[in-house]
Fold this protein.
Amino acid sequence: MVIVSSREFRANQRKYFDLARINEVVITSRSHGSYRLVPISDGDTLIDHATLDAKIRQGIADYESGKVSRMKEGESSGEFLARMINEA
């Protein structure tokens, strides 16, 4: 783990962005607390609260109106997902 001040981070951002790919980097600030610098990978999902809330509300509305897909008895989750993809 590498711990740096916010001043050091501002002066050498590229260095710490590169370092964060292989090591944990913590940036400290007296007035704002500490933060961890973490690279985002392809598998990460980024979504803001408003978008997530809207998607959840839409899902609830779909469920309440009967717009749902159910697994068949004995169907595995993989088979169910494959069926959903093929029906789309």
